[in-house]
Specification:
Strand order of the largest sheet: 8-7-5-3-2-1-15-16
Low-confidence stretches: 1-33, 286-297
Oligomer: single chain
Structural class: alpha/beta
Distance between the termini: 88 Å
Number of strands: 26
Mean pLDDT: 85
CATH architecture of the largest domain: 4-Layer Sandwich
Number of helices: 10
């Protein structure tokens, strides 16, 4: 009898154990965990480059550190993000405006792996950086084209260019393509048009976000290349009123022609792109709008108008979230103007501007006034962007 009872107890334990394992398996595949957030920070470091990446699973990667003068600012920024160690640091090439600040980073933060282009340089800054890496016994990696940087299993970080034997520092730039789900980032360092052409011949360069090469210089971002990348967002890292004339006017024109949304660190400060691998959002620490193309091409339009109900729908049918701050909706007959507050209309969403006695507010509705703004017998509506340009008209 005791044996029978023991056998029954063992079976119950096994069954309970099986149920627990099944529950854990289901939990491990919840949508929340399947869509962890990744952040890519493009730091405002003056005339230089520094990009900080936080992976979906909490790993940290720093690409370049700008100039020596900016080194403390880079360290301070990392500290504010709670960074205690960097899993990887990448020095794209040995120019001082990319590696100078890494001296401060090496002296302040623990680094597990250091990735370098292998391009030898005789500058004091480069030699000081190498000596610190040696003194701290940090593994030193010179990758090959096609290698992957193993930061996080959920990311594909591929090396598209590296040139230890290049005659020019910029041509030696490590170029990275980072892919998380459906969202990708192409980080060009200071790679020039020669490198761009070589990369185009080898791989698909299409990416959601492009960090344009060489601070927007005319040595990079050829028409063929930017058309192939076809980015939704382009980031330019440069110093305000710099002596190099960055970004170049012709490069800006090329970018505008492909209808990408352009952000410059000198204009908006630090730029952070957040993504869960499906959607993305661009955040800046300033109120300056991106110097993008005319917003008519992005997909903002007046999608509906109910004169009697006093409700006008504004839809973002594009793929980029758009700030409506200082945009205007105009009731043409009476030239009555609604000025939008500081809100962002997400891609694919519609927001309704309401007026009249039953005007709504909240949950997708913006209240204009309780007065009558639209003539029931006919009144055209016009939507203007923050530059006063007509974006959409609805008769």
């Amino acid at each position: 009898m005791r044996k029978i009872i023991m056998l029954v107890c063992i079976c119950i334990v096994i069954l309970l154990s099986g149920c627990t394992q099944n529950q854990q398996s289901n939990t491990s595949q919840t949508p929340a965990e399947a869509r962890k957030e990744m952040k890519v920070h493009f730091l405002d470091v003056g005339q230089g480059d520094s990009i900080f990446i936080q992976s979906p699973n909490g790993k940290n990667l720093l690409v370049d550190g700008s100039t020596k003068q900016a080194g403390k600012d880079v360290v301070d920024y990392l500290r504010k993000q709670g960074v205690e160690k960097l899993d990887y640091v990448v020095a794209t090439h040995p120019d001082a405006d990319h590696i100078g600040g890494l001296i401060s980073v090496l002296n302040s933060i623990s680094i597990k792996h250091f990735v370098d282009s292998g391009k030898v340089h005789t500058s004091q800054t480069y030699e000081e950086m190498l000596q610190l890496i040696l003194d701290k016994d940090i593994p030193f990696i010179v990758p090959n084209v096609g290698d992957n940087i193993s930061l996080d299993d959920e990311l594909d970080i591929k090396v598209l260019n590296v040139g230890a034997e290049s005659d020019d520092n910029n041509e030696a730039s490590i170029v990275l393509k980072i892919t998380y789900g459906e969202i990708s980032f192409l980080l060009m360092g200071d790679a020039d048009t020669v490198v761009e052409k070589e990369i185009l011949e080898r791989v698909n360069v299409e990416a959601t976000v492009l960090k344009a090469g060489h601070h927007g210089s005319d040595t990079s971002s050829s028409e063929e290349f930017v058309e192939a990348v076809n980015p939704k967002v382009t980031i330019l890292s440069y110093g305000k009123d710099n002596s190099y004339g960055h970004p170049d006017a012709e490069v800006m024109s090329r970018l505008e022609q492909i209808k990408t949304q352009i952000y410059g660190t000198a204009e908006v400060g630090n730029i952070v792109v957040e993504t869960d691998g499906v959607d993305y959002n661009v955040l800046t620490n300033g109120s300056v709008e991106p110097s993008d193309i005319a917003d008519t091409a992005i997909g903002i339009n007046i999608s509906s108008k109910d004169l009697r109900g006093e409700i006008v729908g504004i839809t973002n049918s594009g793929e980029i979230n758009i700030s409506l701050k200082d945009w205007q909706l105009v009731s043409v007959v009476g030239n009555q103007i609604f000025k939008f507050p500081n809100i962002t209309l997400q891609a694919g969403d519609t927001i309704y501007v309401t007026s009249g006695p039953e005007a709504k507010e909240g949950s997708g509705y913006l209240k204009w006034t309780n007065g009558q703004m639209w003539r029931n017998d006919g009144d055209a509506a016009t939507l203007l962007n923050n530059k006063g340009e007509i974006v959409s008209e609805f008769e």
